[in-house]
Automatic annotation (TrEMBL):
Keywords per UniProt: Membrane, Methylation, Transducer, Transmembrane, Transmembrane helix
Any GO BP: signal transduction
Coiled-coil regions, chain positions: none
Family annotation (CDD domains): HAMP (cd06225), MCP2201-like_sensor (cd19411), MCP_signal (cd11386)
Annotated TM spans: 12-32
Region called Disordered, residue ranges: 538-584
The name this protein goes by in its record: Methyl-accepting chemotaxis protein
GO annotation, cellular component aspect: plasma membrane
KW Membrane (keyword) present: yes
Lineage of origin: Bacteria, Pseudomonadati, Pseudomonadota, Betaproteobacteria, Burkholderiales
Biased composition (Low complexity): 538-575
Domain called HAMP: residue spans: 212-264
Single GO term (MF): transmembrane signaling receptor activity
Amino acid sequence: MNLQSMKISTRLTLGFAVLAILIVVLGAVALLKVTAINGHFSLAIDDRYPKVKRFQVIKEQNATAARAMRDMFIVTDPAEMQALDEEINRSGKLLAAEFDALKNIMTTPKGKAGFEKLAAARAAYKAPREQVTALIKAGKVDEARATMLKDLRPRHAEYVAAVDELINLGDKLMVDAGKSADAEVANAQWTVAALIGAALAIAGVMGTWLIRSTTRPINEAVRVARSVAAGDLTTQFDASGHSETAQLLAALKEMQTRLADIVGGVRQNAEGVATASAQIASGNNDLSARTENQASALEETAASMEELGSTVRANADNAQQANQLAMAASDVATRGGAAVQQVVQTMKGISESSNRIADIIGTIDGIAFQTNILALNAAVEAARAGEQGRGFAVVASEVRSLAQRSADAAKEIKVLITQSAERVEQGTQQVDQAGATIDEVVRSIRRVTDIVGEISSASREQSSGVAQVGEAVTAMDQATQQNAALVEESAAAAESLKGQARQLVDAVAVFRLASDGHRAMPASPPAHHAAAAHAIAQAAAPKAAPRPAPAAAKRAAPASAAAPKAPARAETAAAGGDQEWTSF
C-alpha cells in the first residue's frame, strides 16, 4: 500500500491508531509492572509479615508463660499461684490458636519444615512444662526446679531457637520480597521509560510523516496557485494519487489547463477583434471621405435641380402661352377657311363684287401678316424650348411659309383684280387653290395646336417631375448628412473598439502559455493606454450629430431629428463587410 496515496483522514486515523496502540501498550506494561510490584508487596505484607508477626506472638507468649512459671517458683500465695497458672494456660491457648493458624498458611518448603520443627519442639517443651507446673502446684518446688533445669530448660531453648529460626526466615523472606519489589520497580521504571521514549520516537516519526505528507502537497498547491496568479500557466507538477491533497493538485492542474485554453482562446479572439476593428476603422475612414464627397455632390445636384426646376417652370409657362397662341391661330385659320369658302362662293359674282374682293384681299393680307407674326413667335418659343421645341420649330417654319405664301397669293390676287375681268376663270381656279391651301393651313394649325398642347402638358409633367426629383435629392442630402453623422459615430466606435481590443490583448498578455515558449510579452506603452482610455470615454459619451455645411443647413435639419436612430443603423452597417461599404 502506497502511503503517499492515502487520504488525509486515513493518515490521521492511522497516526492516532498508532498513538492509541502505544498508549495501550504503555498502559498495559505499566499495569503489569504495577501488578508485579503489588504482588511482591502483597507477599511481604499479607503473607510474610503476618507469619513473622505470629511467630513473634508465639515467642512473646512463650516468654510470658516462662515468666509466669518462674514467678510460680517465687510466689507462695495460692491466689497468685492460681493467677500465674491461669496466665500460663491463657498463653497456651493463644499459642495453640497461633499454631493452628500457622499450620494452614505455611506454604514454602522451608517454612513447612521449620514449622514442623517448631511444632515438635513445642510438643517436646510442653510435657516438661506441664510436669514442672504440676510439681509447683504440688509444692514440690525443688523437684520442679530440678526438672526445669534438667528437662524443661533445654526444651525451652530448642523451642525458642525454632521460633527464632522461623522469625529469621520470615524476616529474610520479607527482605527478599522487598528487594524483588525494588528490582521490579526499577525494571518498571526502565521499561516504562523505554516505552515512553519509543512512543515519543514513533509519535515524532508519525507526526513528521503526517506533517510532510500533508504540507508538501499543500505547499505545492500554494506554489501553483501563486504561479497562476502571476500569469504563469506553464507550471509542471505531479498530481498523482488519491488523497485529498492529490485531488486538490489534480483540480489545480485541470483548472490551469482549462484556464490556459480559455486565455489562449481569448487572446486569439482579442487579436482577431483588434485586426477586425482596425479594418473597420480604416473602412469607416474611407466611407467617411466618400460620404463627404457624396454630400458635396448632392448639394451641387440639389442646386442644379433648383435651377432646372426654374427653367422647366419657365418652359411650362412659355408652352402655356404658345398653346394659347396656337388656339388663337386655330381660330383665325378657321375663320380664314370660312372666308375662303365665301370667296369661292362669291367668285362667281366676282365681276359684280370687285370692290368687295379688294376688301377681302386686304383681310387675307392681314391674316397672312398675323399668321407670319404668330409663326415667328412660335419659332422663337421653339428656339427657347431647345431640343423639346425642335418639332414645334419645324411646324412654325411651315406655318410661316404658309403665311408667306398667303401673302404672295394675296398680292397676286391684288394684281389679278385688275385683270379679274379677263382672268375670272383663272381667278376662280386660284381661289380654289387658295381654299385648299387654307384648309391645309387650318389642319396644320390644328396640328400645331395639338402639339403645343402636348408640349404644355409635358412641360407641366416635367415641372412636377423636376420638383419630385428635387425633393428626392433633398431627402438624399438629408440621408447623406445622417449617414455622415453615423459614419463619424461608427468611426469613433471602431477606434474605441480598437483601443479596447488592444487593452484586452495587453490584459491577457500577462498570462504565459506553453505555446508561448520564453518570449517576452509586449507591454502596452502609456500613450497607447491614454489613447485607448480617451477612445473609451468618447465611445461612452453621448455623441452629437455633426454640424451640417452652411449650404445644406436647412436640408440637414431633419437629419438631426433622425439622429437618435443612428446607433441601430450604425450597428447594422458595422456588421457588413468592405463590399457593403463600397456598395453604399
